[in-house]
Amino acid sequence: MDDVDDTGSPAAAYRLPMFPLSTVLFPLGRLPLHIFEPRYRRMTADCLSGSGELWVVLITRGREVG
Asked: Is the whole-model pTM more than 0.85?
C-alpha cells in the first residue's frame, strides 16, 4: 500500500532538513547552536527563507559521532 495523506491522496515527497547532533531535543525545546560548517549554514539559511522547519536528529554512529 502506498503512503497517503489525510485526504486519501498519495503523500507528496519532500526534503526534510536534518541537523545531526549527539543530543535529544524535545518538541518546542530550544537549543543554542553555533553553526560553522558551510553545508549547515546553507541549510539553515534555506530553512529560514522557507518553511522554518529544521529537524534535529540523534546520531549514534558515523564519523560525526565523538
From this structure: no
